[in-house]
Amino acid sequence: MSRERARREPAATTRRDGAAPRREVITAPRRDVRRPRRSVVDDIDEETRIGRVYVQALIRTQLRLGLATVALVVVPLASLPLLFGLVPGVRELQVGPLPLWWLLLGFLVYPAILAVGLWYVRQAERNERQFTDLVEGR
After folding, report:
1. Residue pLDDT, tens place only, 65-74
2. Which of 7, 22, 71, 129 is at a distance of 20 to 30 A from 48, taking alpha carbons?
3. What is the spatial distance between Cα 99 and Cα 52, in angstroms, rounded to a whole number?
4. What gap in Å lies between CA 115 and CA 69, rounded to an integer?
5. Within a 13 Å sphere around the CA of 78, how many CA atoms are in the beta-carbon half?
6. In angstroms, what CA-CA distances link 102 with 77, 80, 121?
7. What is the rounded average pLDDT for all residues in the chain?
8. SS (H, E, C) 57-114
């Protein structure tokens, strides 16, 4: 047999005793079979331990946001009367014909509360959207 022909054709596959070689069977798990995956939604619905962890994380995040919102509204509102009561000079300040305290408590508080409220709604929706994305695996 020539060298070129030997390269093209595989070598004879007989054993020394003349018998044909034993055929090897390779087995592996089937790849086309999909195991049902347990989703986070199922964990939440069935109130498993991992489902409770996810829900508690959302509740904790929303609680932090709520406390931050309260702090943004209550701290300035509570400090204004204290400021006007403890510092008499500030109480006497005038902005045009109106006293400063009247202007602050009568006009500027409401737009500030509205702005904090809008900020809170946007942040709460963002937290819920992130939670939904996490649960749905996006």
Report:
1. 999 999 999 9
2. 129
3. 53
4. 11
5. 6
6. 13, 11, 29
7. 80
8. HHHHHHHHHHHHHHHHHHHHHHHHHHHHHHCHHHHCCEECCEEHHHHHHHHHHHHHHH
Spatial separation of the C-alpha atoms in residues 72 and 120, rounded to whole Å: 10
Query: Dihedral (C-alpha) 123, 127, 133, 137: value to the nearest 10 degrees?
Result: 150
Please identify which residue in the block is written with the tokens 């701290």.
75
Q: What is the pTM of this model?
A: 0.62
Helix (H) / strand (E) containing 44? helix 40-45
* Cα–Cα dist 80/82, whole Å: 5
Indicate the DSSP class of residue 17: T
Structural domain spans, the chain: 3-136
Q: For residue range 82-136, list pLDDT tens digits in order.
A: 888 888 888 788 888 888 888 888 888 889 999 999 999 999 999 999 988 888 8
User: In terms of residues, how long is the chain?
Assistant: 138
**Contact between residue 115 and residue 76 where contact means Cβ atoms under 8 Å apart:** no
